[in-house]
Specification:
Blueprint lengths: L22 E2 L4 E2 L21 H11 L5 H8 L3 H12 L6 H19 L6 H10 L6 H11 L39 E10 L2 E10 L5 E7 L4 H12 L1 H4 L1
Length: 243
C-alpha cells in the first residue's frame, strides 16, 4: 500500500511593491521614496540619457525591491539589455572581446603607473607601453586611466587667480556694462590677468580705451597685490585727467 504524503503548506512570497502604486496623479507626488514613477520620470531629448552601465547599476541596486521589468520600463532600457548584463556579470567569459582586452590593458596601465612613482600621465604611459611592444592607442590609455581613477602629476603649481574679499565693498558698475564710447578718452576699462612663463607666473594689469581699443597703460609684476589693481581701477575712472 502506498503511504499518503502529508500536504505541504505553500507559502507565497511577499509581493513586490509596484513603483507607481502610491503615486498621486493629481499632485504629481510619489509616496514611494524613489524616482521610479512611470507617470512622472522622463528623459529629456538631446543626449540626456545616462550611460547603459549607470542604468544597469541602478537596476542591480533596486531589483530586490521593485519589479525588474517595471524598472526597465521607467528607465527606458530594453529588458534584454539588462539580462545580457546580468549574464555577463555571472559568467565573465560571456563578455565581448573588447571588454576582455580592456581588462588586460588596465592591468598594464596600472603596472606602468605604479612602477613610475605614480607620476606618469596618459602620454608617458602610452609611450612606455609601446616601448614594451604593447600595441594600444593613445585615446584608449586616457580612457582606461580615467576609468581606473589614475592621474599623473602636472608640472608647476596651480594658481588661484581670484581670491575675493567678502568683507571689502564691491566696486560699482558705473556704465551698466555698456563699454562703448563716442570719442577718445571718454571711457577707459581696466583689467587684470595672469600668464605662465618659463620663469614662473606673471601678473599683468592694464587699461584699455573703449573708443580706440588700445592699451593706454600696463604693468607686469611677479606678485598679485591689491594696491596695484586699485591704482589702475582709479586710473580708468578718470581718463580725461590721466590723458
Amino acid at each position: 500500500m502506498r503511504r499518503s504524503m502529508p500536504e505541504r503548506e505553500h507559502v507565497r512570497p511577499p509581493p513586490r511593491r509596484s513603483a507607481s502604486r502610491s503615486c498621486n496623479t493629481r499632485t504629481g507626488n510619489c509616496g514611494v521614496q524613489t524616482t521610479f514613477c512611470v507617470r512622472h520620470v522622463r528623459f529629456h531629448p538631446g543626449g540626456a540619457r545616462p550611460q547603459t552601465e549607470v542604468l544597469n547599476a541602478c537596476i542591480d541596486q533596486h531589483r530586490n525591491t521593485y519589479v525588474g521589468g517595471l524598472i526597465c520600463k521607467v528607465l527606458q532600457i530594453a529588458p534584454s539589455t539588462y539580462r545580457r548584463h546580468a549574464a555577463r556579470h555571472r559568467n565573465p567569459e560571456l563578455r565581448s572581446a573588447h571588454a576582455k582586452h580592456d581588462e588586460v590593458l588596465m592591468l598594464h596601465i596600472e603596472r606602468v603607473w605604479q612602477a613610475n612613482m605614480q607620476v606618469y600621465g596618459a602620454e608617458k604611459v602610452w609611450k612606455q607601453m609601446n616601448h614594451e611592444d604593447i600595441v594600444v592607442a593613445h585615446c584608449a590609455v586616457g580612457r582606461l586611466k580615467r576609468r581606473l581613477g589614475l592621474e599623473g602629476v602636472r608640472r608647476g603649481k596651480t594658481v588661484r587667480s581670484t581670491m575675493p574679499d567678502t568683507a571689502a565693498p564691491c566696486p560699482l558698475d558705473r556704465v551698466n556694462r555698456q563699454f562703448q564710447a563716442n570719442r577718445p578718452n571718454q571711457l577707459w576699462v581696466s583689467d587684470f590677468t595672469y600668464l605662465s612663463t618659463c620663469q614662473g607666473w606673471l601678473y599683468v594689469a592694464f587699461v584699455v580705451g573703449a573708443f580706440t581699443r588700445c592699451i593706454m597703460d600696463w604693468h607686469v609684476s611677479t606678485t598679485m597685490t591689491t594696491e596695484e589693481a586699485n591704482y589702475y581701477r582709479q586710473l580708468s575712472r578718470q581718463p580725461a585727467l590721466a590723458a
